[in-house]
Amino acid sequence: MKIIYNKIIPFGKNFYAINLFGVLFAKGTCNAVVLNHERIHTKQIKELLYVPFYLFYVLEWIFRVFQYRNFMKAYRNISFEREAYSCQSDLKYVAGRKPFSFINYL
Questions:
Q1: pTM assigned to the model
Q2: I need a surface site. Which of 3, 37, 105, 106 has the fewest CB within 10 A?
Q3: Measured in whole angstroms, how far is the alpha carbon of residue 61 from the centre of its chain?
Q4: Helices 79-87 & 32-47 angle (0-180, nearest 10)
Q5: In whole angstroms, what is the distance from residue 17 CA to residue 19 CA?
């Protein structure tokens, strides 16, 4: 995974890193947990063939905004994020992860 350090992407003060098509944009250095979180997203992105991942991600986020009436709570409850956040501390997770594991977090 290529990492690009910058002060612009991701936008907003609440986000530190974003994975766009397998390239990580970060506002500063990333520890092992953050890198693992983003590696999980890279697996999700690849198994859904890139563009469908982002379409599903945005559609689920919109659904969650209506469900929770809160942008950040909606973000944290997207199935992709739930998998990544719940498994980010397990640094061996990506190696043993089964394809489409995010479905368990819907």
A1: 0.95
A2: 106
A3: 12
A4: 140
A5: 7
